[in-house]
Specification:
Helices cover 15% and strands 21% of the residues. It has 2 helices and 6 strands, in the order E-E-E-H-E-E-H-E. The chain has a two-stranded antiparallel ribbon. A two-stranded antiparallel sheet has the order 2-3. Strands 4-5 form a two-stranded antiparallel ribbon. The structure holds iron/sulfur cluster (2 copies). One iron/sulfur cluster is lined by residues 5, 10-12, 26, 28-29, 44, 60-61, 63, 65-66.
Length: 68
């Protein structure tokens, strides 16, 4: 199993938030991850070497962009 991000649903694109509903503050997944495995650069990325597959980020994403 592995955590996956659906980039068509994720509002963080090209280094910025594109969602009018979160006012540029969407950090749900980044803040939720207990091991700091999620980073946002140009796009959101999960460091698979750190991820413990706990699934917390799935519930944190209000855009339903993360799945396992
Ligand atoms: S599954 Fe858990 S450890 Fe992995 S990226 Fe999501 S919150 Fe972080
Ligand atoms: S919480 Fe969801 S929409 Fe927001 S940055 Fe993370 S994956 Fe993208």
């Amino acid at each position: 199993m592995a955590i996956k991000i659906d980039y068509s649903k994720c509002c963080w694109k090209d280094g910025k938030c594109t969602s009018c509903s979160c006012g540029g503050k969407c950090k749900g997944c980044v803040e939720a991850c207990p091991v700091g495995a999620i980073k946002r650069g140009k796009k959101v990325e999960i460091d698979k070497s750190k991820c413990i597959e706990c699934g917390v980020c799935i519930g944190s994403c209000k855009h339903g962009a993360i799945s396992i």
